[in-house]
Design brief:
The protein is of the alpha+beta class. The protein has a single domain (3-117), classed as Alpha-Beta Plaits. 26% of the residues lie in helices and 35% in strands. The protein is globular, with a radius of gyration of 16 Å.
Length: 118
């Protein structure tokens, strides 16, 4: 089953656009790495003095994720992670959460709306 790697970010009020721009303008090399399936940047609710965001990456497996963290692509992608734009937008470091998929359901691409377990 797949592995989902998430980082939760608390972004200062008024810094949301700058934070999103950093992500939109970055050079992502995820597609070069075996096992990468999908990336999403999620904008969540407002908390007490911050806006919650989460980066959400789906991998084929934990081992593919782990290989990514040891790759040249990972080092390149995180080289500027502590730059001024990012640091000033954040209220502390991101919080990592990793999950192994135990159940995955999706809508079939054929007619009908039944869900199929995969």
């Amino acid at each position: 089953m797949s592995f989902i790697a998430m980082n939760r970010f608390k972004v200062r009020p008024g810094s949301e656009a700058d934070f999103e721009t950093v992500w939109k303008d970055r050079e992502s090399r995820l597609k070069e790495v075996p096992g990468f399936q999908e990336f999403r940047l999620l904008k969540g609710p407002e908390g007490e003095g911050y806006r919650l965001y989460s980066s959400h990456v789906i991998w084929d497996s934990w081992s593919d994720f782990e290989a990514w963290t040891k790759s040249e692509q990972f080092r390149d992608a995180h080289r500027n992670a502590g730059n001024g734009n990012t640091q000033s937008a954040l209220m502390g470091p991101p919080q990592f959460e990793g999950f192994e998929t135990v159940l995955h359901q999706k809508r079939r691409e054929v007619a009908g709306t039944r869900l199929a377990a995969v």
